[in-house]
Amino acid sequence: MVFYIVLAFVIIQRLVELVIAKRNEKLMLARGAYEVGASHYPFMIVLHTGFFVSLLIEVVFFSGQFTPHYIWLILFLLLQMLRVWCLVSLGSFWNTKIIILQGANVVAKGPYSFIRHPNYLVVCLEIAVLPLMFQAYFTAICFTILNFIILSIRIPLEEKALKEGTNYTAYLERNNVKQP
């Protein structure tokens, strides 16, 4: 039973995030922003949808572990707090797509003052932690690898777009980062 509650919570959370992302996308596009890397976005949708399907199938038909291991559950809840901190810190700049507002300052507050892409860290950890909570090892391993592959495409695209389209130099100076 707990498995279905956790799964429903995460799916509802993701659907709410998609609504927020769509709203933010409209706001940014109205301000003159543009999208980068649209060609890989459908693969991300397939990856994340496949993750939930795989998790459901593996838990229901193979692991049968419907009660979470509480250490994993606590870690998962901490990740949710970090996820919310990421979204709040980025405000209208947060999106599931790469949306660049020409000349904008790169956000360097909240968790972004400590790590370059904390939201991707959260997603990577969630993709491992959520299945491990219910002993869905195949889903944890398979989708962690697939997520790393998609992020190995996405993060360089996003970094390049930020460097070319935003006030990236100000970000580097604010955070005492030497330019490569």
Task: Characterise the protein shown here.
Helix 2 runs antiparallel to helix 5 (137-165). The chain has 180 residues and is mainly alpha-helical. It has helices at 2-30, 41-63, 70-90, 118-133, 137-165, 168-174, and strands at 34-36, 98-100. The termini are far apart. The model has no long low-confidence stretch (mean pLDDT 92). It has 6 helices and 2 strands. It is elongated and about 50 Å long. Strands 1-2 form a two-stranded antiparallel ribbon. It is found in: Membrane. One of its GO terms (molecular function) is methyltransferase activity.
Distance between the termini: 51 Å
Determine the fraction of residues in helical runs and give it as a percent range: 55-70%
Strand content: under 5%
- Unreliable residue runs: none
List how many beta strands DSSP finds: 2
Rg from Cα: 17 Å
Order of helices and strands: HEHHEHHH
- Tell me about the biggest sheet? 2 strands, antiparallel
Strand ordering within the main sheet: 1-2
Organism: Solibacillus kalamii
Keywords: Membrane, Methyltransferase, Transferase, Transmembrane, Transmembrane helix
Subcellular location: Membrane
InterPro entries: ICMT_MeTrfase, Metal_cation-efflux_comp
